[in-house]
UniProtKB/TrEMBL annotation:
Coiled coil: none annotated. GO terms for cellular component: cytoplasm. This is L-seryl-tRNA(Sec) selenium transferase. The lineage of its organism: Bacteria, Bacillati, Bacillota, Tissierellia, Tissierellales. It is an enzyme of class 2 (transferase). It comes from Anaerococcus octavius.
């Protein structure tokens, strides 16, 4: 075999050949040359032009950004790995508007004096939940921490063993509670907690709170019992004990009309007598990442005095975006069309089917592709409605080299994230947007007809 090393071009030759930024060209060339050195080690033959063609294509698809869009063909709406909620146009417009000029972020225009960033969302949250007051922080994990640190540091807090939830990303509610300085007292058993389990601890002088964690990402079936909020409320009546619920995904509206099982809304929790409720803004709410705490004015005021709030402080762009999303709730019929997350959550199966058929008609124009529509399952995700499977439709593609197809779709310009099981590839139409149908078609066409 001839000396393959001679076929590797010199860096200078490569740099002379391209007009693009030499730093970028050099980076790309080095990674391509590494690939070819590996080929040489494995005694794989190649031509110098192959190297240039690889460099060409990497330069063509080069982006300086590490964060980019993907097409979610998994059918999981609030996909934590893929960025959870997709934002509405209005909320994006507000980010641009507030970010592109000065704003009254911490300025009271009426008084001509310093104001507070925490005033901005209060009115709309009150309207939507009936709460006395509200506070927004970076995410719900920060909300949980802030509540417990403010009210339970060095004190005892009761929580049912059935609610010591791990919520993904190995985030455990019990660990957060410990870090906040609260001393957790677990009550009940994993599957059953009774009122008397709480009653047994209620005379503890160092007791500061009863914490309820919504079992949003799993559900207990079979022999199980938990205690109703109203009974807990009665139990702590006349005592200086906080009743707090971490609602997790926290919906503002009842989703039963859309085929989901009943889950308490934020407003329902407050009506049941919970003093403070916290929830995420980028799960069922359909907004950007944030956490909102709602409830009694005196408690919210207490948390605002906690120095830690500064570490959990939301950015103005978050405020701009979340405010717009919450305002959309005032007209839910319009929101169902304009907020992509809410649209997908409430979409009826016929609409999904039509989108799937449209995609199939396109794909069938491609030579040699073996595709059909099948009924499949979609999920809300983000730890919401764990047992509720949404009936959806997917394109099933059969191919002798499914691993290669999956990889090519993922690494293509549109970064299509599909699922593979039973040796087939699936594109779930629930989370694919209409405007992405052509992109998927182009990508598949390139794969099959190249
Ligand atoms: C998702 C979730 C959290 C964390 O919320 P983030 O906004 O992701 O920080 C906390 N508790 C429960 C029950 C959750 O489901």
């Amino acid at each position: 075999m001839e000396n393959l090393y001679k076929k590797l071009p010199q860096m200078n030759e490569i740099l002379n050949r391209y007009d693009e930024n030499p730093v970028i060209v050099k980076d790309i060339a080095n990674s391509v040359l590494d690939d070819y050195r590996a080929k040489i080690a494995n005694k794989v033959d190649f031509e110098t032009e192959d190297i240039y063609s690889d460099i060409d294509s990497m330069i063509n698809s080069y982006t300086p950004y590490s964060l980019y869009n993907v097409i979610n063909a998994t059918g999981v709406i609030l996909h934590t790995n893929l960025g959870r909620a997709v934002l509405s146009r209005k909320s994006l417009e507000r980010i641009e508007k507030i970010g592109s000029s000065y704003s009254n972020l911490e300025y009271d225009v009426k008084k001509g004096a310093r104001g507070s960033r925490y005033t901005h969302l209060v009115d709309i949250v009150k309207k939507l939940t009936g709460a006395e007051d509200a506070l927004i922080v970076n995410n719900n994990a920060a909300a949980v921490f802030l509540v417990l640190n403010t009210f339970c540091q060095g004190k005892n807090a009761l929580i049912s063993r059935g609610e010591l939830v791990e919520i993904g990303g190995s985030f455990r509610i019990s660990e957060i509670m410990k870090k906040s300085g609260a001393n957790i007292i677990e009550v009940g058993a994993t599957n059953r907690t009774h009122l008397y389990d709480y009653e047994n601890e209620i005379d503890d002088e160092n007791l500061s709170a009863i914490v309820k964690v919504h079992k949003s990402n799993f559900q207990m079936v079979g022999y199980n019992e938990s205690v109703d909020t109203k009974d807990l409320k009665e139990l702590i009546a006349d005592r200086d004990i906080l009743l707090y619920e971490d609602l997790g995904s926290g919906s503002l509206i009842d989703l039963t009309p859309y085929g989901y099982s009943y889950e308490k809304t934020v407003g329902d929790c407050l009506n049941d007598g919970i003093d403070l409720v916290s929830f995420s803004c980028d799960k069922l709410i359909g907004g950007s990442q944030a956490g909102i705490i709602v409830g009694k004015k005196e408690y919210i005021a207490e948390m605002k005095k906690n120095q830690l709030l500064r570490a959990f402080r939301v950015d103005k762009l978050t405020l701009a975006s979340v405010e717009a999303t919450l305002i959309e709730y005032l007209d839910f019929e319009t929101m169902k069309e304009e907020n992509p997350t809410i649209r997908m959550i409430t979409e009826d199966e016929d609409t999904t089917k039509k989108r799937c058929q449209k995609l199939l008609r396109k794909i069938q124009k491609i030579k040699d592709v073996d595709a059909e529509i099948i009924e499949s399952e979609g999920k809300i995700g983000g730890g919401s409605y764990p047992l509720d499977i949404k009936k959806t439709y997917s394109i099933k593609i059969s191919d002798p080299n499914i691993t290669k197809l999956e990889r090519q779709l993922r690494l293509s310009d549109y970064h299509i994230i599909s699922t593979v099981h039973d040796g087939n590839l699936y594109l779930n139409a629930l989370t694919i947007f209409d405007k992405q149908i052509d992109d998927i078609y182009e990508t598949l066409k390139e794969y099959y007809e190249k």
